[in-house]
Amino acid sequence: MSRTIPLQCFFSSIREAGIHPRPRRLEFYLRFLFDSVRLAGASVLDVGGGDGSLSFYAVCSGAREVVCLEPRADGFPPGAGPAFEGLAARLGGGGVRLEATTLQEYDPGSAMFDVILLHNSINHLDEEACISLLRDASARDRYLALFRKLARLARRDATLLVTDCSRRNLYPLLGLKNPIRPTIEWHKHQTPEVWARLLAQAGFGRSRIRWRSPNHLRSAGRVLLGNRIAAFLLDAQFCLTMIRQ
Questions:
Q1: Distant-in-sequence, close-in-space partners of 141: CB < 8 Å, separation ≥ 6
Q2: What ranges do the domains of the chain cover?
Q3: Which CATH number is 7-244's, of 3.30.110.30, 3.40.50.150, 1.25.40.10, 3.40.30.120?
Q4: Please, how many CA atoms are within 13 Å of residue 231, restricted to the half-sphere of its CB?
């Protein structure tokens, strides 16, 4: 893929592929997500990359190489595969290497990365262990082994980006479904502080936790709702950034 492809081509392709109907909202979110992260010239690992949209965004932002791990893409069953293929066709096909495998099974050889992204995938690395993480030492050990693998894949000063919903949310505490995220199984998630402590044991530091606000509210929403209290009352979406020490 030519690195001269402008980002507006990425956003128009996202809309044409039916992945995101409102590219401007997506653009606002991606500016928030990758705040202070240098993608130009970077090697990027997208763990659980789904339809590949963030992988292709990284390439269109100047990343020199991107590996997208998505085990469901093996054979392209309904879901991630067709969307990935559609984006690849619209954006020239190159620049993103899709690996239909898990992080546990991924063999990178000698590859190391400048940016590692776990976008709404950290709890799926080992869902059973995630559920019992706070009460089961063996579950913590399983995650710690995965995080140490991430650390081995990261160059010194590499950036790790983790997004997910925090376990702490008003509605499940009240025994109610969250009206914004009614399908979330909150017991299958953890707080960003829990993840930050485990990642610190694996060799990552300088944790920075940010709370997502509704994209359609743009900058005003960031000022009013981009905080822990508002997130607790909404859908508790966070972005955790850490640096490989």
A1: none
A2: 7-244
A3: 3.40.50.150
A4: 21
Tokens of 66: 């991107």
Per 3-state DSSP, what percentage of the chain is helix, strand, and coil (rounded to 5)? 40, 20, 40
DSSP 59: H
Supply the pTM of this predicted model.
Answer: 0.93
Give the type of residue at 193: E
CA–CA dist 67, 27 (Å, integer): 22
| Tens place of pLDDT per residue across the chain (245 aa) | 444 567 888 999 998 888 888 888 999 999 999 999 999 999 999 999 998 999 999 999 999 999 999 987 544 444 456 788 888 888 876 689 999 999 999 999 999 999 999 999 999 999 999 999 999 999 999 999 999 999 999 999 999 999 999 999 999 999 999 999 999 999 999 999 999 999 999 999 999 999 999 999 999 999 999 999 999 999 999 999 999 99
Write out the two tokens for 231.
Answer: 């997130």
